[in-house]
Amino acid sequence: MNRVICACGKKNKDKLLLLSQCCGRYLDHFDTIPAPDAESLMRSRYSAFVLGRGDYLKKTWSETTCPSDLSFEPEVKWLGLEVRTHRLTGPANAEVEFVALSRLKGQPTRLHELSRFVKDTGRWFYVDGILRTPERPRNA
Q: How many C-beta atoms lie closer than 10 Å to residue 55's C-beta?
């Protein structure tokens, strides 16, 4: 049995969830188990970045904004995710603000984004994001 902790850092009763209990079910069963809300989709997309799952990222990206080529920076080491806020902005729209920490070539980086999502045909899709001012994390 695979006992890998989910990269998104979601907890249940102060205990980190396993990938199979959390984002893994969406990553591995996109066609039958869609993420139930925008926050879950955003968390699963973070996990997909950590795991190099471009297939999932493409499937969960709105066709109107999805890039034709999606490549990963092989030297990035993802360190953690903090979801700051999540809210519905309409019956089929939502926003999720998050901070993702990483290290690239030994340098700490911080991605702070307000992501926008749309619900279409019963599934949530990432539309785009507004980057916040780049910051360097303290003591990273």
A: 12
